[in-house]
Amino acid sequence: MTESPESHTATVGERCARGDRGLVRAFSVLGKRWSGLVIGTLMNGPSGFRELSRAVGGVSDSVLSDRLSELCELGLATRRVEPGPPISVTYELTEAGYGLAPALQEIATWSDKFLVDD
Amino acid sequence: MTESPESHTATVGERCARGDRGLVRAFSVLGKRWSGLVIGTLMNGPSGFRELSRAVGGVSDSVLSDRLSELCELGLATRRVEPGPPISVTYELTEAGYGLAPALQEIATWSDKFLVDD
DNA sequence: GCTAGCTGCTTCGGAAATACTAGCGGCCTC
DNA sequence: GAGGCCGCTAGTATTTCCGAAGCAGCTAGC
């Protein structure tokens, strides 16, 4: 397949049409406030709740707790408890979670190019 | 730069760390309910309000109207009015809007691979 | 031992966002 | 004229997000 602009556009268009179900599912996750940033932050490696809260910045505890629960339920992240003392909790992305890396990379690239600085 | 798995992982990690500002900006758009799907649907080409509403499916008029306004204000989409009769309104992505295609493609690929069917 | 501070949550009440739906004016068809 | 389409808007109801207080567990310093 040649890499002409037209065929690339058509491929994108067909892909999005066939990927509608996929996009619906994906944005049921990514379209919730903070989820994308939580996942993006966990790309840097496993993290505790408070560490994650500080790294994300600006997310309330209750929402962060909800989002992490959802991500774990969806199999995108795991929650590991070290019984201690001191007790500690660590959140880490799963393979599925890390699978979002290419998309997040593309999003960051797009953002740097097209979104204005606030 | 070699393409070894380690350097790829490090590149992703560094990229996300350096892209945090970018991700924050991006998810201020994509992290809102329906915006991702609206953009994804407009990838198929220009569309009227009702046509878009039906294609996206499940979004309320008032929220769709809000989202489209926001996308236009951000320069991701344009709203064109044909004075008619009959009067018609068409929404279309800008170059910046279409610039999200690679990311949406990656998201759809990821979703197909890792998210469970409902 | 007490206090202060960290941890990871949970709970509660309120603010903000979203959903729902009726309605408007413009237009077309029967 | 009635009914239906269009693109919204406005008002109300519901859901989501938020902020902050609080809990239990733990540590460090006095």
Describe this structure in words.
2 copies of one chain form a homodimer. Chain A has 118 residues and is mainly alpha-helical. Chain A folds into 2 domains: 1-31; 33-114, Winged helix-like DNA-binding domain superfamily/Winged helix DNA-binding domain (Arc Repressor Mutant, subunit A). Helices cover 61% and strands 10% of the residues of chain A. Chain A contains 7 helices and 2 strands. Chain A has helices spanning 5-18, 20-30, 35-42, 49-56, 61-73, 95-98, 101-114, and strands at residues 77-82, 88-93. A two-stranded antiparallel ribbon of chain A has the order 1-2. The structure holds a DNA duplex (30 and 30 nucleotides).
Write the layout of secondary structure elements.
2 copies of one chain form a homodimer.
Chain A: H1 5-18, H2 20-30, H3 35-42, H4 49-56, H5 61-73, E1 77-82, E2 88-93, H6 95-98, H7 101-114
Antiparallel strand pairs in A: 1-2
The first copy, chain A, binds a DNA duplex (30 and 30 nucleotides) through residues 32-34, 48-50, 59-66, 84-89.
* Greatest interface by residues involved: A-B, 52 and 52 residues
H/E series of chain A, N to C? Answer: HHHHHEEHH
Number of extended strands of chain A: 2
Q: State Rg of chain A.
A: 17 Å
Kindly report the oligomeric state of this protein.
homodimer
Number of domains of chain A: 2
In short:
Two copies of one chain form a homodimer. Chain A has seven helices and two strands, in the order αααααββαα. Chain A has helices spanning 5-18, 20-30, 35-42, 49-56, 61-73, 95-98, 101-114; strands at 77-82, 88-93.
